[in-house]
Amino acid sequence: MTGQFYTVFDTAIGCCGIAWGPDGIIGVQLPDIPPAETASRLARRFPAARAAAPPEAERRAIDGITALLAGAAIDLGTVELDLRQVPEGYRAIYAIARRIPPGATLTYGEIAERLGEPGAARLVGQAMGANPFPILMPCHRVLAAKGETGGFSAPGGIATKLRLLAIEGAPAARGPFSTEPATPETAPGLFDDALLDDWGPGCDAAVAAAHLAAADPALARLIGRVGPMRLPLDRRSSLFAALAEAIVYQQLTAKAAATIYGRVKALFKHAPDGPRPEQLRLVAEDALRGAGLSRNKILALRDLAAHAEAGEIPSLAQAQTMSDDAIIERLVAVRGVGRWTAQMLLIFRLGRPDVLPEDDYGLRKGYAAVFGGLPPDPRELAAAGQAWRPFRTAAAWYLWRAAELPKS
What we know:
Structural class: alpha/beta
């Protein structure tokens, strides 16, 4: 078969495409939005190419890409690429990068050292940015210094790079070809599967990051610096237990609150997740005071128990059928539970994807760190957040991280 051709195919991350000629594959296209744009982009990149069914070698490459994007540890380093279009100085760099296995990473500097040119990290970065064969030449496995994400020129940008690394289970860059299994301790930037499940099909952290990056260049830069979102969910058995703990923790340091809450739980030996509503109603006030609770917090806990016994605190099953606003309205009726506390529960207990706690000072401080100026007031932050819908939770998470980052 002479000439150039292309085809598109479905994968776990969307519609991809390849273009090929008589000497191998000449290009790979990652998913675009809308999906039909994948074929259009291929046609624009290779105007001489025509749509066609792939021959056997290209069919094997497609099968390999599809399997890799579904989570299989497939080695695509032997797929034949036509490198004639690639600058001579990039070919040796690509040869090194193609040997990085799934689940491992190298930095630009490490590739430069393997190339025998330790000062060529910038050249390596340029080669990655010009890569016509993403996935087959796995530039997503090449990171910036200190394990930072670095750039990614394919559709979706950094968010796509992060998603590919998450699919492969890549740990943080801890040295050449580190392939130890990723854990919360060794790779705290990887996604939390519980959050992805609770958000529902198609609403995962990579989709959220891609949306935010497309919505605002400043957020795109922040996402590239911070890396993938990891938002572990509270696994307690009830919203009541989560609210009771939240009341205890109010206006205390984490250490002091943990000590007091531990004493409260110790009053109820058969309630490892914290007291049940009827137990809080019946326990003597002196016992609660002895555990370190103030008068106001005791009143708030009693009121929470009364609302729960009246059926006014939703169960987890009931909460799954309720809107965010309906849950907040129900919870703020409890003494000591404000809108911020209810929003924290929506984020960290229920995994709701579109919550922006506009009263949170840390969030507003993070906004100022990203966008400049003074921290906005809650109304200004809420207005800015309209552009981040329907993934304001992810925006909040990244802005919290921005408030913690050293100034660059």
